[in-house]
User: Fold this.
Amino acid sequence: MRGLVRTLVAKGSVKISVARAKEARGFVDRLVTIARKKTLSSHRRLLSELGGDEKTAKSLTDIAIKLARPDGSLRLVRLGTRRGDSSERARLEWSKKEEKVVKVAKVTKNVQNLPAKSV
Assistant:
């Protein structure tokens, strides 16, 4: 699990089997909850859970603050089956708040540049 968390923090998403993704989701959510506290004891606990990897612990704290969601911080996207052994694959990624941006097209007519009508 530690290697999986390191890869997830470094790359943002990881492709694994569905069973492993379901197991990892609980482990990572627990680590994110610990990282949100931003205390010395929570940082040391992250280091002990991640095997002393300082860079990953710092990055996980930054990600936890950015997400700030009450529910799960990971999204599990099913990708289908693997060709070799037909095991179900999934992509585990951070669930970001998706902001919907609505662009309004502004149409203006410049009356002076329109061609004159011939009668």
Confidence is low (pLDDT under 50) at residues 98-104.
